[in-house]
Amino acid sequence: MKWGIRFFVGLFCCTSLLACTEEPQWSLTPSISFSQIQKITKISNDGFGGKAKIDSVVMSIRFQDGDGDLGITQAELKANPTKYKDFRNFEVNVLLQKNGKFIPVNFSPSLGGLMNFKFKGEQKPGPIEGTVDYSTQFVYAFYKGYSPLFTAKNDTVKFQIYIRDNALQTSNVVETDPIVIFQD
Q: Per residue in 84-109, pLDDT tens?
């Protein structure tokens, strides 16, 4: 009986030690990878008594950061408003396919902005990883006459994404797969 108890106590201790894992040792500069892109098309009121077709494009990226300093809390914004005045930690560039080549399209205001990546419990410092989704909308009626770069139908776009941490270190740039907007 004593040997049986000792065996199970020893087995429990070994299992407990094996279950303990060290935190990963990632770079303090954030790193991202492309996960997926999807388009959701819906019909909405256009504000003028008619209907407008809207493409919501959802981009997903995976991220890793060694010290977890992604995202800003309201307290951090209030504590250092000068540092974070125009701070953007999620940047998205749009590329439109014309004549077989992708050319940059400037949006004003630009896509992206301030995202909150705080996924670590109680916002303790340390390595974090996860997935973030960002979405933007393309409204058919709006873009039809808004930009000479966009056509009325079947434009192919892709996006370049990068993130920035609170120490202003910029991640690598990832590119999404192409996606067709303004499709009939």
A: 788 889 999 999 999 999 999 988 78
